[in-house]
Design a protein that fits this description.
Keywords: Plasmid. This is PRC-barrel. InterPro entries: PRC-brl_dom, PRC_barrel-like_sf. It holds the Pfam family PRC. About 20% of the residues are buried. The N terminus and C terminus are likely disordered. By secondary structure, this protein is an alpha+beta fold. It is globular. It is about 15% helix and about 30% strand. The longest helix is centred in the C-terminal third of the chain and has 12 residues. It has one domain: Roll (SH3 type barrels), CATH 2.30.30.
Length: about 120
């Protein structure tokens, strides 16, 4: 899967790859496949979550704004207010060869706009 595509200002990193993400019901909703870093600001823009499948086969990949994740040192992973069902309804990397980030920014931002992250 190529996730870089036509937004050359995004870089991919595997540093957080494999870390679990727990959703609103404290259930694992996926794991981080990659993080996408804005080359201009140096900040993480999105995390691409891997969800479903079996032994890495048939996984779906969902880009999620980084701001909806928060690290939990006790879990050694991330927490989010996103439920598994909400993630399943999110825009995802489909069957296209290259994920077109430019075409998806508005769709992703609109979808996650009402996600409220509680502090602490």
């Amino acid at each position: 899967m190529s996730i870089e595509g036509s937004a050359p200002h995004l870089l991919t990193s595997d540093k957080e790859s494999g870390k679990a993400v727990y959703g609103a019901e404290n259930k694992k909703i996926g794991s981080i496949e990659h993080v996408m870093i804005d080359e201009t600001s140096g900040k993480i823009a999105y995390a691409v979550l891997s969800f479903g499948g079996f032994l890495g086969i048939g996984n779906d990949h969902y880009p999620v704004p980084w701001k909806v994740l928060r690290y939990d040192s006790e879990l050694g992973g991330y927490r989010s207010d996103i439920s598994g069902n909400r993630l399943k309804g999110a825009p995802k990397h489909g069957t296209e060869t290259v994920f077109d980030w430019n075409a998806r920014y508005a769709e992703l931002d609109d979808y996650y706009n009402d996600v409220v992250i509680r502090t602490g």
